[in-house]
Design brief:
Membrane topology: Multi-pass membrane protein
GO molecular function: protein-cysteine S-palmitoyltransferase activity
Family: Belongs to the DHHC palmitoyltransferase family.
EC number: 2.3.1.225
Number of helices: 9
Strand content: 5-15%
Shape: elongated
Number of strands: 10
Order of helices and strands: HHHEEEEEEEHHHEHEEHH
Subcellular location: Membrane
Largest sheet: 2 strands, antiparallel
Radius of gyration: 24 Å
């Protein structure tokens, strides 16, 4: 009876999380990240280069954006006509920008991103538990099959197939689930593992990591009672994320946008631009930054670099 109840619980949670992963629509950037009609016209009139970057810098000056392209340009999507929020990428399959995009999963025929990443993790977890449960309960009959302890009927082949299928899926799911658990602990996405986020001053592969506890809460939320249920509880709006920007070497303050900085200083500052209220509380126990440093950061945002060119990322 206990095994039967456990079987039905795992199956229901598996189906529920799978359903939510498939049918939860990926979130798109809010309207404030879309260019206005006048900005679109200005962008089309200007030749590609610094003049276009100036238009994008004006459009993004009040947005909580800290990442750049490889050349240091504002991240812009020419298909969606918007300034890309941090960790947002354009999906070529869905043909739209997805907030905190992790990857496009063909198994669920949907993009895995900010809106359904928790559901995807739970789907992997309950799938793994479900396969392990089936393999464990079928093991005794599988042993009897090899010791000729089962009646000579077609059912014994079903038992053998069921055990091998559950065991193989358990191995593959355990590796995939373990990989995504590591991503959550480091506050990374699959895309950010292959291409680390580039901030105004340097590339920082751990730029969004706030420590294991805060990284976990950013995906699963503050209320632990919802962690194991396929209900949305992730923190934030998907457009802004707490991060730590590395101080620029004061001696290299004249370097445009700090792109060529080789400073090894590991002191961290808050971003100069405000975070959303739903995200900023994750940083409450971090030491506050000085007003002088904050003003210096604001001054660096408006610095222009004639060498910069606009890049459109995927």
């Amino acid at each position: 009876v206990v095994c039967l109840v456990a079987y039905h619980i795992f199956f229901m949670l598996f189906v529920w999380s799978y359903w939510k992963t498939i049918f939860t629509l990926p979130m798109n950037p809010s309207k404030e990240f879309h260019l206005s009609y006048s900005d679109k016209e200005s962008l089309e009139r200007e030749p590609r280069g610094e003049s276009q970057q100036e238009v994008l810098r004006r459009a993004a000056k009040d947005l909580p954006i800290y990442t750049r392209t490889m050349s240091g340009a504002i991240r812009y999507c020419d298909r969606c006509h918007l300034v890309k929020p941090d960790r947002c990428h354009h999906c070529s399959v869905c043909d739209k920008c997805i907030l905190k995009m992790d990857h496009h999963c063909p198994w669920v025929n949907n993009c895995v991103g900010f809106s359904n990443y928790k559901f995807f993790l739970l789907f992997l977890a309950y799938s793994l538990l479900y396969c392990l449960f089936i393999a464990a309960t079928d093991l005794q009959y599988f042993i009897k099959f090899w010791t000729n302890g089962l009646p000579d009927t077609q059912a014994k082949f079903h038992i053998m197939f069921l055990f091998f299928a559950a065991a193989m899926f358990s191995v593959s799911l355990s590796s995939l689930f373990g990989y995504h658990c590591w991503l959550v602990s480091k506050n990374k996405s699959t895309l950010e593992v292959f291409r680390a986020p580039i901030f105004r001053h340097r590339t920082d592969k751990n730029g969004f990591s706030l420590g294991f506890s805060k990284n976990l809460r950013q995906v699963f939320g503050d209320e632990k009672k919802y962690w194991l249920l396929p209900v949305f509880s992730s923190l934030g709006d998907g457009c802004s994320f707490p991060t730590c920007l590395v101080n620029q070497d004061p001696e290299q303050a004249s370097t445009p946008a700090g792109l060529n900085s080789t400073s090894k200083n590991e002191n961290h500052l808050f971003p100069a631009k405000p975070l959303r209220d739903s995200q900023s509380h994750l940083l409450t126990d971090t030491p506050a930054w000085s007003e002088t440093a904050a003003e210096a950061e604001k001054g660096k945002v408006g610095m222009s670099n004639p060498a910069l060119t606009m890049e459109n990322e995927t």
